[in-house]
Amino acid sequence: MIKLTYNERxxxxxxxxxxxxxxxxxxxxxxxxxxxxxxxDPCYRWMVVSCSFNIINSDHCxxxxxxRVTTSLExxxxxxxxxxxxxxxxxxxxxxxxxxxxxxxxPIIYRIHDGLxxxxxxYTDFIQKPxxxxxxxxxxxxxxxxxxxxxxxxxxxxKSEKINSIILSRESxxxxxxxxxxxxxxxCDVVFPVSFTRIxxxxxxxxxxxxxxxxxxxxxxxxxxxxxxxxxxxxxxxxYLTWVSKTNAEKTLLEVRINELERENEDxxxxxxxxxxxxxxxxxxxxxxxxxxxxxxxxxxxxxx
Length: 305
Fold this sequence. Notes:
Helices cover about 30% and strands about 30% of the residues. It is of the alpha+beta class. The protein folds into three domains: about 70 residues; about 140 residues, SH3 type barrels, CATH 2.30.30; about 60 residues.
């Protein structure tokens, strides 16, 4: 049997989980976060302070000490904000908007037979290494959110010399207290779909206080956004986008010219009908087209003779 107890740092018991005839359980490392609703406590988001393991009478006892994240009571994800506003909130988010994405954490495994394992490779329904994880800044590159998701590129503070990344200018992150004191690298080969249920407004600093502005006012500079777009095209080998743009422009011009020629042709037909109308009586025919056919026939017979 495996028994998990969750305690606050103060020692207060929050809850227990007991597993019978189950050899492996999911855990989270120190300083990572998890979501759990304990009876009588309104908080959902918790940080792992420590884990300890003991075997008592053949039972595997795991104590998880955690702290509540107080902001979890105040935070609202885009899904809820958008629902409360009748669909207005998502309109604030444009291409280039900076958001915060809560992707969750990579869990670890405790096995009865060989203890704590650093890999969860058999548990493909959880996040795996080296997949993106934790809360992080992201830049929206497509805001077509009809299906309640946006396409984003993720941002990291880990220095990257790879050609697939750019460093954001300080102008882009100046108003973000969590990010403005360090370099931020946009990883342009990680174009990631994120649900509205994972998107938060980033914390901003204004008027002497930090808060989440749920109007999502922060965007990267125009120059940074252009660099991101260029890098995405380069990473995914999309030089054809320039050709597509040029071809579409030429197609549009061609369609305009075709329409002009069609109008000119209609004008010529109208003028020709006016000019040839008297000949209907001479040839005793009912329409101009028949007159033209008769004239062509006469010319052909004349050329043969």
